[in-house]
Amino acid sequence: MPKRSALAIVVLAAGKGERMRSELPKVLIDLLGAPMIDWVLDAATDLSPERIVVVVGHGAKAVKERLAGRPVRFALQAEQLGTGHAVLCARRALAGFTGTVLVLYGDVPLVRTETLRDFLANHRRRRAAASLLFAEAPDPRGYGRILREEETGRFVGIREERDASPAQRRIREISTGILAVEAKELWSALRGIGRENAQGEYYLTDLPALLLEGGRRVEVSGADFAEVRGVNSPADLAAALSVARERVVAGHLASGVRVLDASSTWIDRDVTIGPGTVIHPFTVIRGGTRIGRDCEIGPFATLRGGAEIGDEACIGNFVEVKKSVLGRGAKAKHLAYLGDATVGEGTNVGCGTITANYDGKRKHRTIIGREVHVGSGTIFVAPVTVGDHAVTGAGAVVLRGRDVGRGETVAGVPARPVRRER
Ligand code: UD1
Ligand code: CA
Fold first, then answer.
1. In terms of DSSP H, where are the helices of 263-396?
2. What is the pTM of this model?
3. Of the four listed, 121, 148, 312, 336, which is most buried by Cβ atoms within 10 Å?
4. 244-420: which CATH topology?
5. 234 C-alpha to center of ligand 1: Å?
6. Is there a catalytic annotation at residue 123?
7. Closest ligand 1 atom, CA of 158?
8. Which contiguous run of DSSP H or E holds residue 251?
9. Which residues have C-beta atoms less than 6 Å from ligand 1?
10. Smallest Cα–Cα separation from 172: which of 136, 219, 198, 121?
11. How far apart are CA 81 and CA 79, in angstroms?
């Protein structure tokens, strides 16, 4: 007897995404620091399925490369003949599987694991042959509409917008595309799907009606539209980004980070921030950044490329930090660029400081020690190393390879040691 709880997940990711007008396969479009498909696969993985099959087609090579290392199988849909056909392409990868197949769409990235878990629990509790996740959309344009029997309100099927009558187009209940189907019903029902529709495609959305006609039980469950919206156009992407941003910021607020203005703050996913840190408005923190506790960040700061900011550090206005490590209590309070740099504990980086990391061909590092006093407007031409407790004068240009010794003071253009009066 197959376990009723056995789960396999098929993620549809073969489409081109014409409406996005991008060369990149749509599912690889970035959503807050990770391609859309990563969001879907993270939610899928959290459900601990027996298998995950990703159906690839357009840009298959790029999608597979991006997902290398994930425990997923790939199925190729060489020609994009529609979502029903895409699921059929996963048949071989699902050979021998007898439980519930959950179909997710690679361009519906924000669906949460808990929502899917509830959906699957309902599906099993109702002993349905198939269950569909639907939502009420404020603007249903572009989505398949949920058709119900007038009298009873019973679900009878899905109608794609292009095939819908004007009255059907006014329906605001939409299909999210997310579907749970018992494997034993799936393959024969899929073969029943035709392509007599406006797009000449095999629509997966015809599957529920076909099962109902065959006397099978099909159930629907509702979800919050914000987490099941599809990303088909730049406008959809912007809407999805705002939902994703809110979700990420909410996570940081809950862990004690003081994001003062969520609406103007951009924090990618995969950023860690310690409690007590204050994030001022108009700050952009890109993926991979790590910030310690009790820091002050912003306003108008940009942190990216895996910046690492130590506890109690301060990154002030119009400071960009890229691929740099700042020690505990280090400060760069105004107008600076720190790229490919290491800045030691307690060092003060003066206003207008620049690490000139790029020589036109390659990037080089600037290593600045602890308790250094970097004078306003200093330019470090990398690669260069500055010892602990050193001082640079305002406007100093420290040339490549002209390392500054521990406790040394340099000034001028190019910077030279300044003799200390004793
Ligand atoms: C689809 C649904 C629609 C639903 C909406 C929810 C169909 C026919 N329509 O419409 O009812 O309201 O999603 O967001 O299913 N794909 C393939 N192979 C194909 C075609 C598509 O893998 O041959 C993949 C795409 O990469 C995408 C997903 O399936 O991830 C959905 O395809 P898309 O063309 O975006 O369908 P919609 O028009 O959004
Ligand atoms: Ca879509």
1. none
2. 0.93
3. 336
4. UDP N-Acetylglucosamine Acyltransferase; domain 1 (2.160.10)
5. 16
6. no
7. 11
8. helix 234-254
9. 12-15, 55, 57, 77, 80-83, 85-86, 105-108, 143-144, 158, 160, 174-177, 203-205, 230, 232
10. 136
11. 6
Longest dimension (CA), the chain: 97
Query: pLDDT, tens digit, for every residue of 239-273?
Result: 999 999 999 999 999 999 999 999 999 999 999 99
Q: Write down the architecture of domain 4-228 according to CATH.
A: Alpha-Beta Complex (3.90)
Q: Which of 58, 252, 334, 373 is catalytic?
A: 334
Shortest-distance atom of ligand 1 to CA 55: 22
Q: pLDDT by residue (tens digit) across 359-381?
A: 999 999 999 999 999 999 999 99
> In the numeric block, which tokens belong to residue 278?
């204050």
At position 155, the amino acid (one-letter code) is F
Q: Which two tokens stand for residue 409?
A: 């003071």
Ramachandran area for residue 253 (φ above 0: left; ψ -120 to 50: alpha; else beta): alpha
Average pLDDT over residues 184-194: 94
Counting ligand 1 atoms within 8 A of each CB, the residue from 20, 105, 161 with the most, and so the one to mutate, is: 105
Domain ranges of the chain: 4-228, 244-420
Q: How far is the CA of 231 from the centre of ligand 2 (A)?
A: 6
What letter represents residue 207's amino acid?
A: L
Nearest ligand to residue 208 Cα: 1
The burial of 163, by beta-carbon neighbours within 10 Å (0-12 exposed, 13-18 middle, 19 or more buried), is given as middle
Q: Which atom of ligand 1 is nearest to the CA of 230?
A: 14
Q: Looking at the predicted structure, is the pLDDT value of residue 2 above 50?
A: no
